[in-house]
Design brief:
two-stranded antiparallel sheet, mainly alpha
């Protein structure tokens, strides 16, 4: 993410282009349906979103992954914070939830474009 951000800064500096840089998951975590839910990579939101757009790529097994982070500590290997490779409870993931989150993200991006681009 840092490398892409730096490339975006360089592009803006050299071309004066208007550029937005964000990860859709950072927007999706603010969807009303995700309020109060601790979630992360491969968790509820990502599983539900995939069920809504590409269900054939989602396994039927619904794991629950715990975050085992060390707070604000910088770790040499951040994967130790994700012992199962994912974080969140995927047992409640549905295509309907995924559609709501995807629609929320789309709405927010549209608003960002309307408000921030000249």
């Amino acid at each position: 993410m840092t490398a892409v951000s730096e490339a975006c800064k360089k592009m803006v500096s050299e071309t004066k282009a208007q550029v937005m840089f964000f990860a859709d998951c950072d927007i999706g975590e603010h969807a009303p349906e995700m309020s109060g839910i601790r979630d992360g990579h491969g968790g509820l939101a990502e599983t539900a979103r995939m069920l809504a757009i590409c269900p054939e790529n989602v396994r039927s097994f619904r794991p629950v992954g715990k975050y085992a982070g060390k707070g604000c500590m910088v770790l040499e290997d951040a994967s130790v914070s994700f012992p199962s490779g994912m974080v969140g409870d995927t047992t409640k993931a549905t295509p309907e939830l995924g559609k709501k989150i995807n629609d929320y993200i789309i709405g927010q991006v549209i608003e960002m474009i309307k408000n921030d681009f000249e």
